[in-house]
Uroporphyrinogen decarboxylase (Aliiroseovarius pelagivivens), 344 residues
Amino acid sequence: MTQQKTILRALAGETLPTPPIWMMRQAGRYLPEYRATRAQAGDFLKLCYNPELAAEVTLQPIRRYGFDAAILFADILLLPQALGADLWFVTGEGPRLSTITSQADFDKLSGKEDIHETLNPIYETVRILRRELPEETTLIGFAGMPWTVATYMIAGQGTKDQGPAHALKAENRPLFEAVMDRLTEGTIEYLSKQIEAGAEVVKLFDSWAGSLKGEDFQKYAVEPARVITSELKKRHPGIPVIGFPREAGEGYVGFAKATGVDCVALDNSVSPEWAAANVQVDGCVQGNLKSSHMVTGGQALVDETRAIVEAFKNGPHIFNLGHGITPDADPENVQLMIDTVRNG
Ligand code: CP3
C-alpha cells in the first residue's frame, strides 16, 4: 500500500519536494479559540482530562492552518500524576508537583499498571481525534522522556539548571535510577495505549537532555530512548518514533542510530547546514525555526524559513520550530511561515 500521508512518508525516509509541516505547541495560548476553550474547561489540567475539549483544541490549528500533523493535546507531567504525584499549575509560573527526595517519597508512587485509571481520558481524546481529523493529517502522540520528567518530579517544579535532579543523581544514585526506571516503564505503557487508541507516530520530549553531559547523556538520554523505542516497535511493528533530545548539540550526531528513532527533532541552537551534514545523513530530521520569529515576523521569518527548507532539501525533513510557539506569537506569522514553506 502506498503511504499517502506526507508526515509518514518523510518519517519512512522519503525526500519530498515540499517538507510537511506542523508546529510544537500549535494548540496554545497564541490562538484566541484556544483561550476560549480553555476558559470553558476551567483550567489547563481540566482541559487535558476532558476528551471532547482536548480534541477540540487539537483540531483548532488544523482547521485554521491545515497543518500536516496534529499533536495530541496533553502534557508530559500527566504521567507523574498518574504515578501518584500531586500536580497543579500556578498561573504565570508553571507546574508544581510533590517532590521526590527520599526512598519514602518514591515508595508512595504507584506501579506502571496503575497509570491507566488516570490516563484513560487521554486515550479517549486520541480515539476522538482519529475519527475527526482529515484523512491526510497524521496524529502524533507523545510523552516526556524519563530525565526531563524526573527533573520536575524531583524538584517539584521547573528549574533553570535541573540542579535538584543532578544533585540526587550524585548523592543517591540508586534512588535516582529507581525514579528513571519507573518513568521508563510507565512511558512504555502510556505510549503503547496511545498507539492502540490511534496515535500514528509518537514523539519523545527530552527538553532538558542538553544538561546531561558525557556518560550521563548516554545513560540517561540515549539509553532510555533506545529502550522505549525498541519496546514500542516490538509491540507495534512499524510505529514511527521522533526523538527530541533538546540542546543535545554534538549529542544529536548518531542519536538516531544509537536509539532506533526514525527522526531527530532539532532545536534552534544547531545550524541547519551542520545538521544536514551530521544528523540528516542518518535519516529524517525535524525543525528548526526559532520560535521568536512567530512573534517578530517579517522578512527575517521568510529568509530564515527559506534557508532551513534549502539546507534540508536533499533528505527527509519535517518543518517545525526549534521549540514550542510562545503565547505572545502573532497567528498571522504562523500563516506566513506555512505559506513560505509551501510556496517558496
Ligand atoms: O505541542 C503541543 O501542543 C502538544 C501538547 C503539549 C503541551 N506541553 C501542552 C501545554 C506538549 C507536547 C507539552 C510538552 C511539555 N510540557 C514539555 C516538553 C516540551 C517543552 O516545551 O520543552 C514540558 C517541559 C512541559 C511541562 C509544562 N507544561 C510546563 C513547563 C508548562 C508551563 C509553561 C507554559 O508554557 O505555561 C506547561 C503548560 C502547558 N502545556 C501549556 C500547554 C498548551 C500552557 C497551558 C495553558 O494553557 O496555560
